[in-house]
Amino acid sequence: MNTHSAAEVVVEFKWEPHHNPFHTPAGDPGPTLHFISETDKAMDTLGQITSYTAAQLGAQYHTHAFSILIVYDQAYIIRWDREGTTVSSAIKYNEEPHLANFSITMHKHHLRCVV
User: What is the pTM of this model?
Assistant: First the structure.
């Protein structure tokens, strides 16, 4: 069993902004704008975090899993289940308390975290 399959929350760090698989469209998103960045580095990151979660959900008897993706100065809280994924808006973790609040909540539930 790898460490990702035993984790409660997987945290992935990427130091370069071009590794960010998510972007928030400016203004009205319209039908042609995508939330997923389709660059090679972004798709590699998306594949990486997806494979970690697949291992986690495949080894545990949970209905869902959480992960955190931190890219440069932004963080995303991701909720995965067997039907899809919900991604938070970008969190400027140096300016906003949302990531800290999520971590405190996870700690209260005694969840293990793999970084």
Answer: 0.81
